[in-house]
């Protein structure tokens, strides 16, 4: 165990703490984060794929309890009713491709009496980030087709923006939008399909691609394994270097006739995390220099005599 005593020095302790913390984060945070995103993306893609094959159903059969469940997300549905006039709400910080955009929400009162928030699509800003003029929805009874979506969670510290013009929100949270429009919508919303009454720019469906999350998760697992292995490699290299320096020091030590006790035999030089290894050649020169000085003194004594 004496050969591993250098691991108790501050530099090595700090290095081991960083490596262990990094490995812990890889296995407990980073890898599960990416693998979880892969699982959720795969589940979403499966739901969208099933919706392509399933026939549209009446929205009333899926929102009877007032909530759009996660199992029903992306389901193709149809509903009839009327738009609530003068109740448009704009969703900020959206994009279409790489272009900033706004999405427009309008409450829709179904024939069954429920109020369903409808995402009519997107509009592009005309001047800077100003909201353009939005075409109002039709006022009469209409039939809509679209896909059910789960409500987005509200963002803390991001309240609705009210004032001149249409009210604006940061997320599609029906409860928050209902407060702005004076309605009590279902906890969820309807994303319109193309060519629908009151529809604006059609929001494209997500690409059915699981993305790179699985490979990222596996990479974090690999990093979590490589970090301790790298630490073990450096520890082994340090042990070998110390052993090499100790053997060289023993070879350069002159033999003495005086008896050496057990404590002296077991004594090994200690080094300062690599600094002593760099200073060893200088110490050798000092030893050699001290030996040369003794020889010079003897020669001077033979010639001039020793001082008394």
From TrEMBL:
Keywords: Cell membrane, Membrane, Transmembrane, Transmembrane helix. Residues 243-308 are annotated as: Disordered. The chain crosses the membrane at residues 12-35, 213-235. It is found in: Cell membrane; Membrane. Residues 296-308 have a biased composition (Basic and acidic residues). It is a multi-pass membrane protein. PANTHER family: SURFEIT LOCUS PROTEIN, SURFEIT LOCUS PROTEIN 1. Belongs to the SURF1 family. This is SURF1-like protein. It comes from Rhodococcoides kroppenstedtii.
């Amino acid at each position: 165990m004496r050969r591993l005593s250098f691991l108790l020095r501050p530099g090595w302790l700090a290095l081991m703490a960083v490596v262990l913390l990094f490995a812990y984060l890889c296995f407990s945070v980073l890898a599960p984060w990416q693998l979880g995103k892969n699982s959720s993306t795969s589940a979403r893609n499966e739901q969208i794929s099933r919706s392509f094959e399933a026939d549209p159903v009446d929205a009333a059969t899926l929102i009877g309890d007032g909530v759009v469940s996660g199992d029903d997300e992306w389901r193709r549905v149809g509903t009839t009713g009327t738009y609530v006039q003068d109740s448009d709400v704009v969703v900020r910080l959206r994009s279409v491709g790489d272009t900033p955009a706004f999405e427009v929400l309008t409450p829709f009162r179904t024939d069954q009496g429920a109020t369903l928030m409808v995402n009519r699509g997107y509009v592009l800003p005309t001047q800077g980030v100003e909201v353009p003029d939005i075409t109002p929805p039709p006022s009469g009874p209409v039939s809509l087709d679209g896909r059910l979506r789960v409500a987005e969670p509200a963002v803390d510290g991001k309240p609705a923006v009210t004032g001149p013009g249409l009210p604006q929100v940061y997320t599609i949270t029906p409860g928050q939008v209902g407060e702005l429009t004076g309605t009590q919508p279902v906890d969820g919303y309807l994303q319109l399909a193309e060519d629908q009454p009151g529809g604006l720019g059609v929001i494209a469906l997500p690409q059915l691609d699981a993305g790179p999350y699985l490979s990222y998760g596996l990479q974090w697992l690999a990093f979590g394994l490589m970090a301790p292995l790298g630490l073990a490699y450096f520890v082994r290299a340090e042990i070998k270097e110390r052993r090499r320096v100790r053997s060289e020091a023993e070879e350069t030590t002159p033999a003495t006739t005086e008896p050496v006790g057990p404590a002296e035999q077991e004594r090994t030089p200690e080094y300062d995390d690599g600094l002593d290894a760099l200073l060893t050649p200088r110490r050798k020169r000092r030893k050699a220099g001290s030996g040369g000085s003794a020889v010079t003194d003897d020669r001077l004594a033979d010639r001039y005599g020793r001082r008394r």
